Amino acid sequence: MPDLTGMNSLNYLDLSNNTFDASEAPTWFSTIPSLAVIVMESGGLQGKIPQAMFSLSGLEQVLLNNNAFNDTLDMGNSISSQLQIVNFQNNSISKVTLTPSYKETLILVDNPVCNGQLANTIYCSLQQQTITPYSTNISQCGPKACPQDQSLRPKDCDCAYPYQGILVFRAPFFRDVTNATLFQQLETSLWTKLDLAPGLVYLDNPSFNNDNYLQVTLKLFPSTGMYFDRAEVLKIAGYLSNQTFKPPPVFGPYIFIGSLYPFPDGNGGGGSSMSTGAIVGITIGCALLIIGLVLVGIYAFKQKKRAEKAMELSKPFASWGSTGKDMGGAPQLKGSRWFSFDELRTCTNNFSEANEIGSGGFGNVYRGMLLDGQVVAIKRSAQGSMQGGLEFKTEIELLSRVHHKNLVSLVGFCFEQGEQLLVYEFVPNGTLRDSLRGKNGIQLDWKRRLRIAAGSARGLAYLHELANPPIIHRDIKSTNILLDEQLNAKVADFGLSKLVADAQKGHVSTQVKGTLGYLDPEYYMTQQLTEKSDVYSFGVVMLELITAKQPIDKGKYIVREVRMAMDENEECYGLKQIMDPVIQNNPNLTGFKRIVELAMQCVEETAADRPAMNDLVKEFELMLQDSGGSNSNSNSAASSATDFGKRKALLMFTVKQ
C-alpha cells in the first residue's frame, strides 16, 4: 500500500478494490488533517481500527466495508462533529464501545457483533438514519402548490416560472450535504453576483453522483411577474455556462447544465394561436419532406457503398473500424508512412522470440530491420489491448507531427488484418531506469545525468510550448526516458498524451491516469490536467537521478524521504545517505544543490508554485555551461559509462497505466 504521509491537502481518498497485501490500517489514515472522506472497500485491511482516525476535524465519511477488521470498534470521545456516516459492513468486528456523542449513521451489518452484543439493533440493519440534504427554506409558504412548470418563489411564496438547471461541482472541499451554512453562502453569492434580490434563489437536492461530483438543483426566479424576459435569461445563462460566476472557494470548479426556459410566446408558456388549416398544411409539407429525404438517403447510401468499395481497392488503410466501417479516411501524416503487415512480419522474422526486446500488457516490442537497412522498434498491440480505429488514427496523427531530437520519432504504422502496430526509431541503450540500476551495463556519472535531465526537459518543453496544439505527456517516468548511442535522452510513449486544444483554457479535464508515485496530487484531486502535471512527474524523475531509487520503494515515497532528509547546512544538502552510490563520492557535483532545489520546486503540491518546463531548460543550460558540458553530443556511450562486458541493446516501451 502506498505511503501518503505528508499529503496534507488531500481531501478525498478512495483506494477501493485494489490488490494490496493484507495489512493493518496505515498510520497516515490518522495524520492527514484535511481528509473529509476515507473510502477503502475490499482493500485487504485487517487488525484493530485506529481510534485517532475519527478525531480528524473535517472528517465526514468513513467507508471501510468488506475488509477484515476485528477486535473492538472504539471511536473514542473526540469524534469529528462533521462525521455523517461510518460503514464497517462485512468485517470481523466482535465488540463495539458505543459513544453517546455520535448520533449519526453507523453500519455494522455482517459482523460477529451483530450475532451477539448488538443483535437486532439499528446498527445491524441496512435501514439506517436517513440524511436529509439541504434545501432552501420555504416552510413559510405552507402547503401551497403550483401548476406544472411553476415553482414557489421563496421571497413571497408566489408561483412563477424559474430558470433552472444543475450545478455540478467537480472538486468540493466537503462532503456534508446537510451543511446549511455552506449552501446559504452559495445562495448569497448567486443572488449577489447574478444581480438578483434575496429570496430569488432556490437550492435543492444536493448529492454526490457516481463520479463523486456534487450536484445541486438550482432555480432562479424573476423579481416580479411570472417570467424572465429573454435578455435576462441569456444574461444569467451566460454568467453560469461561461463560468463568469465564481462560487465560494470551498465548492471548487463547476459546470452548469441549464434547462430550456418556457417563455410565454409559445415556447411552453402560453398555448398556440396557429389555425387548424396551417397545422394541416405544415403536416403535409413535413411528410413530403421526409419522403424526399428518405429517397435521397437511399441514393446516398448506395453511392457511399460504391465509394467504400473503391477506397478499399486503392487504399487498404482508409477504413478504420473493425467491421470495415469508414472512420474518416487515411490519417494525415507528417514524416511517417504506412507499412503492410507482411512487410513488418518479414523484417522481424515472423515476430520471432529472438527479436523480442520488450513486453507488457499492451503486447510485445520487436527489433526489426527494414529493406533500406534502418533498424526500428515495432510495437505490436495484443488483441485485448487494441484501441478503436478512430483512436488509433488519432494517436498516429499525434505522434507523426512531433519532431524533436529529444523525443522518440514515429517511423510509421500498420493497421491491417486485425493488427495495430507502431514503428519507432530504435533507441539502443534502453531506459533511464535500467541505467540507474546498472541493468544494461551503464553507469551514469553526474555530468551525464545533468545532460539527461536537460535533454528530457527540452523534449517536454517542446511538447508544452512548440507543438501545435500543445501536448501534455501525462505519463512521465524514468522508464519512458530512453538513451541513444551517445546516452542522449529521448522521451517516449505518448499513449496517454492529451492535446490542449484551447490555449485559453489551459487545462484538460480527464479521468486520472498515469503511474503511481509520479502522479501530480492536484491533478489527482481536481482531474484537471495541465502542463504542470508533467512538471511534477519530471521532478520525481530528477529525484531518481539523484538517488537511483524508485518513486515508491518498500512503502517509502521518494519525495517525502528527500524532503525529510534535506539540510542545506550539511554536505550534499543532507542527502549523502540516500544518494546513488555511483555519484556519492564524486568530488565535482556541479550544480547539485540547485538540482535538488529545482526538483523540490517541481514537486510542490500546488501547480502554481511549480516552474514551467521552459524555465527548467534555461537552468540546465546554465549548469551545463558551468560544467563545460553544454554539448550533449560530446561523449559517446562508451566514453561516458563503465562497461561491464558486452551490452545488449534494449528498448522498453512500458504499459499504459
TrEMBL record:
Keywords: ATP-binding, Glycoprotein, Kinase, Leucine-rich repeat, Membrane, Nucleotide-binding, Receptor, Repeat, Serine/threonine-protein kinase, Signal, Transferase, Transmembrane, Transmembrane helix. Signal peptide: none annotated. GO terms for molecular function: ATP binding; protein serine/threonine kinase activity. The chain crosses the membrane at residues 278-301. It is a single-pass membrane protein; Single-pass type I membrane protein. One of its GO terms (cellular component) is plasma membrane. It is found in: Cell membrane; Membrane. Its EC number is 2.7.11.1. InterPro entries: Kinase-like_dom_sf (IPR011009), LRR_dom_sf (IPR032675), Prot_kinase_dom (IPR000719), Protein_kinase_ATP_BS (IPR017441), Ser-Thr/Tyr_kinase_cat_dom (IPR001245), Ser/Thr_kinase_AS (IPR008271). It comes from the Eukaryota. ATP binds at K379. Residues 351-624 form the Protein kinase domain. This is non-specific serine/threonine protein kinase. It comes from Iris pallida.
